[in-house]
Design goal:
By secondary structure, this protein is α/β, with parallel strands linked by helices. It contains 16 helices and 15 strands. Strands 6-7-8-9-10-11-12-13 form an eight-stranded parallel β-sheet.
């Protein structure tokens, strides 16, 4: 698409090409340009400036114009943690949660991840694709311009391959970039409950080679958590994944201080995700690494868990990203604007910090920072145009209102 956006009330998230991830104090700054214009050529940001710079603006007079009076233009959300390929919702577990059953108790009764695995096993691949396409369209309409999607509801060789083939089809047909993550180590299948090493051997000797041969994944994830996979098992799986060119991303410290953060750091994980339970030992480990701390406050909201201590992490100088965790059990929503609201309201992040975490740092958590996440010449023009609002702080402030007027992809 070629387009000239004019009369933009404020152009948000302006960065130089060399500005990549943001950490600590740098996340407080959200550069913006008032009364601006922005030119898009061949789907890429080609130039921007102030409306008063008429000489420069006239160089783009050949482009079709879009008047943004009273509106803010900003980068799309970059959602680096989702599970949006699944067979069915798990509304039947919702009442159990209300009655006080914990995540672990529901899982012990055959609910949770194993419930999704059973349903996925019985669902045709074409139906999975159609359902996932609807969810993908939904989150794009809500402002997401790049997304990571995990497997993990297959829990068998054929089940995991089926999920990853669906993600590959989404990648091939979607208008936004998608990263695929293999999460075979999401839970132990019921038939392997007393044969842990047999299931890990299945991951190492059958799943990983076949996934790598078919080029079906970019990353490998492990649910390193009490009752799921230990740090030692996590090391074993991730070190094997590295040999197949799959970089680590970790589910860590959602339910307890599991050792998952340290496992992620020592295996050079791109990110460690969740971190509801974290202390100085984990923060120190992250300070000495390049691993991104990805926080998923909508999952904490839905499960009534403690929220990650974002302020402590930011004050320690960590790189913090925000993602949705869109899935049928612990976060049945991919609305990133609500994630940003929770980050501000419950984790005391400023609007600038939260928006940076959900845009540029989210892109970094998918290694897409050269393509997305900021208003930078040469990057893809995946953009959110708000409705008329007074400032970008209204997005988290008015948490129940959809303030997006249009989403532009490329």
């Amino acid at each position: 698409m070629d387009c000239l956006f004019t009369n933009i009330k404020s152009l948000i998230g302006i960065r130089q090409k060399e500005e990549k991830r943001l950490s600590g104090q740098a996340m407080k700054e959200l550069p913006q340009l008032p009364q601006a214009w922005l030119a898009v050529r061949r789907g890429r940001i080609s130039a921007f400036g102030k409306m008063e710079d008429t000489a420069l603006l006239e160089q783009h007079a050949d482009l079709p114009q879009f008047d943004c009076s009273g509106r803010i233009l900003m980068p799309c959300w970059c959602d680096s943690h989702t599970h949006l390929v699944f067979a069915a919702w798990r509304a039947e577990e919702f009442e159990l949660k209300i009655k006080g059953f914990t995540y672990e108790q529901i899982a012990a009764q055959g609910g949770g991840i194993l419930n999704s695995a059973r349903k996925l096993s019985d669902t045709d691949e074409e139906i999975l694709y159609e359902q996932a396409w609807q969810r993908l369209t939904e989150i794009i309409d809500q402002g997401t311009g790049a997304v990571e999607i995990k497997s993990g509801y297959g829990l068998s060789v054929e089940g995991e391959l089926k999920m990853l083939r669906v993600i590959a089809r989404l990648k091939a047909s979607a208008p936004i970039p998608i990263k695929a993550t293999f999460l075979g180590a999401h839970a132990l299948p019921a038939e392997y409950r007393h044969r842990r090493q047999d299931y890990i051997r299945l991951i190492l000797e059958e799943m990983l080679p076949r996934i790598a041969d078919a080029h079906l994944a970019d990353y490998c994830d492990v649910f390193c958590e009490n009752g799921f996979f230990t740090p030692e098992e996590t090391d074993q799986i991730l070190q094997a994944a590295w040999k197949y060119g799959l970089k680590p991303k970790i589910h860590a410290n959602q339910l307890a201080r599991s050792g998952g953060v340290q496992a992620g750091v020592r295996n050079y994980a791109v990110s460690v995700d969740h971190l509801e339970q974290i202390d100085e030992e984990e923060i120190s480990a992250l300070q000495a690494s390049s691993t991104i701390a990805t926080l998923l406050p909508a999952a904490a909201f839905f499960l009534r868990l403690p929220y990650p201590p974002a302020r402590r992490m930011l004050e320690a100088g960590l790189t913090v990203a925000l993602a949705s965790d869109y899935n049928p059990g612990s976060c049945p929503s991919g609305r990133m604007s609500f994630v940003v609201s929770l980050a501000c309201i419950q984790m005391r992040m400023t609007p600038a910090e939260a928006i940076n975490a959900a845009t540029l740092n989210g892109a970094c958590a998918m290694e897409l920072e050269d393509e997305l996440g900021s208003i930078t010449i040469g990057k893809r023009a995946n953009l959110i145009l708000t409705k008329p609002i007074s400032s970008v702080a209204e997005i988290p402030y008015r948490f129940g209102i959809d303030l997006i007027e249009k989403v532009f992809i490329s």
